[in-house]
Specification:
It contains 28 helices and 31 strands. It has an eight-stranded mixed sheet with strand order 7-6-8-9-10-15-16-17, with helices on both faces. Strands 24, 25, 26, 27, 28, 29 and 31 form a seven-stranded mixed sheet that branches. Helix 4 links the parallel strand 3 and strand 4. Helix 14 packs across helix 23. The radius of gyration is 50 Å and the shape is elongated.
């Protein structure tokens, strides 16, 4: 027992010694690790901000929280960012001096900031020279990208990235004009070329650019806004800094530019900072739209916002910023990315290489070059993580957004009404995980309900008539004739004018159908004595000279005119045609009129087919039918008689072959259709008045040197010149009566052989003169009558839609009835007269002839094949070809005694008479018994 106790005591001693050794080793390892953590490497990083601005305060608070959060969760990292701050005090020179001081004296490895694009301009050059990355979370001007400095990192979006969602909004609401209002500095100028080009790409005209200085007074801002009120455009895109933007909208609200009809769209520079606006400033921007980058809501973001708000209120008790905006989130993510990048570079020598300093060196010459700058830059570009603002990754030196949010300012803040993505356009709900849809939409149905300025119940159309109290000045042509289209009358006593006509009534109907009122007045383009001041081109050019706001009348849409003005959609049918006199075709009453119903090719085809069908019937019937046998002259006469007698169905010859019967059935149908058509056409020629145009071809006019006419002032003159007519052969007419006089005289007696004019004038003239004149093809394509407006006028699209509504409705029929049908003096007898109908041609019957021909050929082939097969011993014999042909011809000329028509000769039934039946097939009794043998059965019989 003593030995056992002794052994047990030794074992306890050994265990205690091992435990003590383990605890000693563990404490040494913990001390070693703790010493390693304590030995962190500080890396100097500069921060250049305007600490007195809302963006500067928010940015700094987010930067400090980012460092605290990052190293709190990454305590084992060996590097630490040592922040060196400098206040630029809102000055470009101050920002440059701060950056220079940080690089030269603090030897910072990176600079976060500056706040504005103007300040970043100079800092980019310093960073390139010292190889120090400059990371800005708020310098958004696209012009900075032109420097192409690899050491400039834009941890924010390029302003040009918001241009597509803004243009999509214009497409959704179909606005055609815009005014750009922007601050007069590099930040304001940078986006303008991009947004102008994008709007022009969707046919939106930028009518004005309002440039406002950042130092402008409220009075100067008011003067600029009053200028905008006198313009017709009511869609404004505002791109400026926050303090200037708030003053602009406060003034706009005061002078009444936040009322019905106005549309205001904010770029993301203002939209993202709406949380910095005071309550009174928010009240002044009610109803505006804005776009801003979409930030996904996450638990981390919600937690950060709560902590940030608590910290910011502790540090800035007097500020009223409610929550961090996108710039604060980008600042947070930028610092996080920089801390990651520095840690990846590792514990290297974070030092500067100094240059040789000369006695005459400047401060810029004294700055060194960072030894770790290139490595830190590459590490930053490869850094990728999910930050508070979304996925953080630098492409081409800057961030890229996948989605924008469209917001509407309502009440105390903003409300989201939709989203825009590069792939799907405008959408109501965002689902970035759904990648199946490839449909790009700009439909306003995908945008939620919007409260517009002034809270109207309709979508603003984007423009109004200028608020100068004037009516639209509508120019109308003054002309002597064709007053049904436009007629101007003067009251000599009051010197007042009255404008009437078809074109005037159409325009009045169109303007009345617009959803808004447009005051206008007609101004004749003529002298008080009723004389025109020029042609139609001169009238239209008055719109270019701004003497008229529009032109209404029988003005044709022509390509060269559209270079200077805009036309609405046409409201009449289009085209230019040739008008010629017509005369009665007396030749149609000649002795040979019976030949005219059919064309020569149809006559020849019919004759050939009559002969062909007769030949086919003869071949099919000759060997089995007594009617088609006999002497050659008798057979030829029978064939021709039989063929042409079918035309009147007067043939007496029997048809006993089934093949021939099939051919005749088809041929009877062809003959029936042909004769009925011939009879109808001939009756028409003999009973209906036959009217023929005196000229049928434009080349005939040129070749004969005939005189032609055109309406005074019409564009048709240029058309005739392009058609190579001799100008000396032109004659002008002003009225329908004058045109009728010229046509009745003819070219040889001081008149014209033909007139060229537009179809509406032609139809009116023909309705007044009935069967005396006609239009001759071809019709040369033109676009018809349209209303004229200045280039880019917003009225064009609305009036064009109204033209469609009017022309498709009953009102257009009433207007035409009023002006044209009441002038129609044609009687029913006149309407019955017509131009000669075309003769019946082969084109109408070739199908019937084809069927008859194919049927006949097939019947011939079948019968001849059966004949050759029956006499194959002759075909396969050793005689010469000529001998075979003669033998076959002889055999063909013989009777086919095996035919049922000849089998009854030897077994004729007798009815008390010794004479056989006179005609084969005349008896209805047919026996099936075989013929008896006789010596005459093998003899050759000829009829």
């Amino acid at each position: 027992m003593a030995e056992i106790r002794k052994s047990s005591s030794k074992m306890r001693k050994v265990d205690l010694d091992q435990l003590g050794f383990f605890l000693f080793f563990l404490s040494l390892w913990s001390l070693f690790i703790g010493m390693g953590f304590a030995q962190t490497i500080p890396v100097n990083v500069g921060v250049v901000l305007d600490f007195n601005t809302s963006v500067g305060k928010m940015g700094w608070s987010c930067i400090s929280m980012a460092l605290s959060d990052f190293y709190g969760s990454h305590g084992n990292y060996k590097t630490r960012l040592a922040i060196k701050t400098r206040d630029s005090r809102g000055d470009v020179v101050g920002a440059a001096a701060a950056a220079l001081d940080l690089i030269r004296n603090e030897e910072v490895q990176a600079i976060i900031g500056p706040r504005t694009s103007m300040q970043a301009n100079f800092l980019i050059g310093l960073g390139e020279k010292a190889q120090v990355p400059v990371i800005s979370f708020s310098a958004t001007s696209p012009s900075l990208s032109s420097f192409r400095s690899r050491y400039f990192i834009r941890a924010t979006l390029n302003d040009s990235s918001q241009v597509p969602p803004i243009t999509a909004i214009f497409q959704a609401f179909e606005w055609g004009e815009a005014v750009l209002i922007y601050v007069d500095n590099e930040y304001g100028d940078g986006i303008i070329p991009y947004i102008t080009d994008a709007l022009q790409g969707i046919d939106v005209r930028v009518t004005y650019r309002s440039i406002i200085s950042q130092s402008a007074t409220d009075h100067e801002i008011g003067e600029e806004l009053y200028k905008l009120m006198t313009m017709q455009t009511r869609v404004f895109i505002v791109h400026m800094v926050t303090n200037l933007g708030s003053r602009l909208f406060t003034k706009a609200d005061e002078i009444g530019m936040m009322e019905e009809g106005y549309v205001w769209i904010l770029t993301d520079g203002l939209t993202a900072l709406l949380t910095t606006f005071s309550p009174s400033e928010v009240d002044s921007i009610q109803g505006v739209l804005g776009v801003k980058p979409y930030v996904p809501r996450t638990k981390e973001l919600n937690s950060f916002r709560v902590r940030w708000k608590r910290k910011f209120q502790q540090d800035h008790e007097t500020d009223e910023i409610s929550e961090p905006n996108i710039f604060g989130l980008w600042a947070y993510d930028a610092v996080t990315a920089l801390a990651m990048a520095v840690e990846k570079v590792g514990a290297t020598n974070f030092s500067f290489q100094r240059t040789n300093i000369l006695s005459n060196s400047t401060d810029l010459d004294t700055i060194g070059v960072s030894q770790t700058g290139p490595y830190l830059l590459q590490s930053l570009l490869r850094t990728k993580f999910k930050g508070l603002s979304g996925d953080f990754q630098i492409f081409d030196g800057q961030l890229h957004s996948t989605a924008f949010q469209i917001v509407n300012v309502i009440g105390k803040g903003e409300r989201g009404v939709g989203f825009w993505t590069l792939k799907n356009g405008i959408i109501r709900k965002l689902n970035l995980a759904n990648t199946n849809s490839n449909i790009y939409s700009t439909s306003k149905d995908n945008i939620g309900a919007i409260v517009w300025p002034g809270e109207p119940t309709y979508v603003p159309k984007g423009w109004v008539l200028p608020v100068n109290g004037k009516k639209l000045r509508i120019g109308v042509p003054v002309k002597d004739g064709f007053s049904e289209f436009v007629k101007v009358t003067w009251d000599t006593n009051t010197n007042a004018t009255q404008v009437t006509g078809y074109c005037i009534d159409v325009f009045d109907a169109v303007m009345n159908s617009l959803p808004y009122a447009v005051p206008y007045e007609y101004i004749p383009f003529g002298t008080p004595d009723g004389k025109p001041l020029g042609n139609y081109n001169d009238l239209i050019y008055q719109v270019v000279l701004k003497k008229y706001d529009a032109v209404v009348g029988d003005t044709t849409i022509v390509a060269n005119r559209s270079k200077y003005v805009d036309f609405t959609l046409p409201y009449t049918e289009s085209g230019v045609s040739m008008l010629v006199p017509i005369k009665d075709n007396k030749k149609s009453k000649s002795a040979w009129v019976f030949l005219k119903p059919l064309t020569w090719d149809l006559w020849m085809t019919s004759v050939c087919f009559f002969i062909f069908i007769s030949f086919v019937i003869w071949v099919l019937e000759h060997r089995i039918n007594e009617d088609f046998r006999g002497p050659p002259s008798h057979q030829a006469g029978t064939v021709f008689w039989f063929s042409f007698s079918t035309m009147v169905f007067a043939h007496k010859e029997r048809i006993v072959s089934n093949m021939a019967r099939i051919v005749m059935i088809i041929w009877f149908f062809v003959v029936l259709i042909l004769t009925q058509s011939y009879t109808a056409s001939l009756a028409s020629m003999l009973t209906v008045q036959q009217l023929q145009p005196t000229v049928t071809d434009i080349n005939e006019l040129r070749a004969k040197g005939e005189y032609i006419g055109y309406q005074q002032g019409s564009f048709v003159l240029g058309f005739l010149e392009r058609m190579n007519f001799d100008e000396s052969k032109f004659r002008i007419y002003n009225s329908p009566q004058q045109l009728a006089d010229l046509l009745s005289k003819g070219s040889a007696k001081g008149g014209i052989a033909a007139a060229f004019d537009e179809i509406p004038f032609m139809k009116l003239f023909i309705s007044q003169h009935c069967s005396k004149y006609t239009m001759v093809q071809p019709t040369y394509k033109f676009d018809g009558f349209g209303f004229v407006f200045p280039r880019g006028s917003p009225l064009v699209s609305d009036v064009s839609r109204a033209v469609l509504n009017v022309t498709e409705g009953d009102e257009m029929l009433k207007i035409e009835e009023e002006w044209f049908r009441k002038t129609n003096s044609c009687s029913d007898d006149d309407k019955g007269s017509s131009l000669s109908s075309n003769n019946i041609s082969l084109d109408s019957f070739w199908g019937l002839f084809l069927i008859a021909g194919v049927t006949s050929v097939l019947a011939l082939i079948i019968v001849l094949a059966m004949f050759l097969h029956k006499h194959r011993d002759v075909v396969l014999g050793e005689e010469s070809v000529l001998t075979k042909i003669k033998t076959l011809a002889t055999l063909f000329d013989q009777k086919d005694l095996s035919s049922h028509t000849f089998r009854l000769h030897d077994h004729q039934p007798y009815y008390g008479s010794t004479e056989p039946m006179a005609a084969v097939g005349a008896s209805p009794l047919v026996t099936n018994c075989s013929p008896r043998q006789s010596t005459s059965s093998n003899q050759t019989n000829h009829a």
